[in-house]
Each structure stands twice: as C-alpha cells, then as structure tokens.
Amino acid sequence: MQHFSARNGCHRWWNRFAPRGFTMDTRQFERGTMGNKACAIINRKSGRGSDEESFAQTLKLLEDRGVEAILLKKPADMAKAVDEAVAKGFDPIIAAGGDGTICGVTEALRGKGPRLGVLPLGTFNYFARSLGLPEDAEKALDVALNGADSTLSFGEINGKVFLNNASIGAYAAVLEVREDIYKNWGRSRLAAYWSVIVAMATLYRSLKMKITVDGKVHQMRSPVAFVAIRAYQLAEFDLEGVEEIEDGKMALLAARDSGRWMLLWRAMRIFFRGARKGQDYVLLSGKEIDIETSAARRFARDGERERMAGPYRFRLKENAIPIRVPHPEENEA
C-alpha cells in the first residue's frame, strides 16, 4: 500500500431508487461537521481511475479536501489497509473504486465502527448509482464527507459480503473473458458487453441445482443462478425482482437451460430490455437462499470472480454498517 498525506503532500510506504436497506437518522443531517479526519482507500485499477490523468486528478481532489489517500498495490492489502485506517481513527473511510473495491472495503469494515463513504471510480458503478450518488467525483466526495448518516444492508454468500449481486455459473466465466478483453481494449462498458457475447458463444455448462428458498425446495438445471439484493441493476435492464427486493427479500434469477446459442440470444434480449420472466428466466425470492451443486464452482460477487466450494448460502444482513449517503433533498432535486 502507498500512503499519501493530503496535509503536507508527503508519501511513504506502509503495510496496510431511495434504496431499501438504508435507514435515515434525521438527527444527523447537519452539513460540514466532520469531527474526524477522513481517508480514502483507492483501487488504482478501477475503471475511471486506471489512467494516469484520472488517477492524478483523484489524488489532487483528495488532497484539496484534506483526505488521506491510501493506495492498494494488490487486493490482498484491503483488509490490512482498513484495519490500519480504523486504528488511526479515520472516519469516514472512503472506498474509492468500482463495486468490487467498495465491496472489499465494506467487508473489511463491518463491525468496526467508522462510517463508509463511497467515491465511485468504476466502469458501471451500480452500487453508487443505487444510492443516488452523483457521477461527478467532487460532488460524490462531498457526500462522503458531509452527507447524511444512514445504515447499509448487504448480502452474504457463505459469509462473504456482496452489495449488488452474487452468482454461480456462467456469469463468473463472463468475468474471466472480460478481464482478457479489458487487457486488449481497455475498460469500457462496450468491452464489458462484448465479453458477454464472447463468453456465451464459447463457454456453456448447465448446472444441476437444488435451490432452497425459505425452506421450499426447487430442483432445476440452469447455466447461471444470479442473486440480487439491490433493485437498481434489475430495473435498468427491465428485469423482474424489483418489487421483491423492495419488500425486503433477495431476488434469484435463473436462466432457462436451453443450450449455448439460446443463452446468447437471451443475453442479447437482456441488453435490449426484452427478457421476460418465465420465457427467459425463472424468478424466486426469499430472505434465505441455499444452492447445492455437484462440485465446487466459480462464483462472482459485485463483478469480481472467485472460487468457493458449495453449498452456497445467501443471507441478507440488514442495517449492518453506517454509511454516508446524499441528503434527501439532494435526491429530490
């Protein structure tokens, strides 16, 4: 990790739509009262922050606002960086990056007290957009420093945090292809969409799954099981499950098992907001979801892929950590 002091510019190495799930504390809507010093944990490789010019602009913005900047050299540094920030008394601790970075900071921060701030620097920024955060970095940083205090709910898959969604099956394969495409084309939404087409055309594996939702068992075959806890991304692609999430449940979408080319066609229907429940996917919803498959599988959470042995237990953790969000009047404007 690399640490930049916004106070004196020196640096040193050190080892280190109002969405459901947020509750507003109206007693704390006073602006500009930042009792503790803030820090930002930055993922240099996140979408908009990955080029030199954008990275320099981010550091300058943080320095101008008196925010300590902590650079991650590798994802494995995340937990240590958060622990050291907590020990130094930073509050809020700002996650500067894409959804994967914000998820990592959230996981490391749970149960430790300081408020989470969000500076979205990723390609899609679904989580930040679900909070109503502005896309402009300076305005988003202002929310992290002076916004309303609220609480954040998140999901867990076998104890690992996710903020938007987690899935097993084909989507993890898409992310693997996406990283290769990013290396050649750079990070962009167009490259991300193209990776879906490439992956669906070349990779297909149907999974036999036993899915238990709030005690009710469902047997099915599907290439992917996608569990969402925020409505924003589903609404953007005109997928069902929004009402279920707003009712405090998780939404599980499983694609129909109909072969590689039909899966590709259905992916295209999602892009063009034409996918339909029953015809293209199955929707289940509940507060507890368990998925059993025959062997360990790749899984993905908030755009980052990993490996994990099943069974996969999805749980919703309500009002789990404090977070800074826009003031209500800002979202109404």
UniProtKB/TrEMBL annotation:
Biological-process GO terms, alphabetical: phospholipid biosynthetic process
Keyword Heme among UniProt keywords: no
Residue ranges of domain DAGKc in the record: 33-161
Entry's Gene Ontology molecular function annotations: ATP binding; kinase activity
InterPro entries reported for this sequence: ATP-NAD_kinase_N, Diacylglycerol/lipid_kinase, Diacylglycerol_kinase_cat_dom, Lipid_Phosphate_FormReg, NAD/diacylglycerol_kinase_sf
Presence of keyword Cell wall biogenesis/degradation: no
Keywords: Kinase, Transferase
Pfam name, any one: DAGK_cat
Name of the protein in its database record: YegS/Rv2252/BmrU family lipid kinase
UniProt source species: Algicella marina
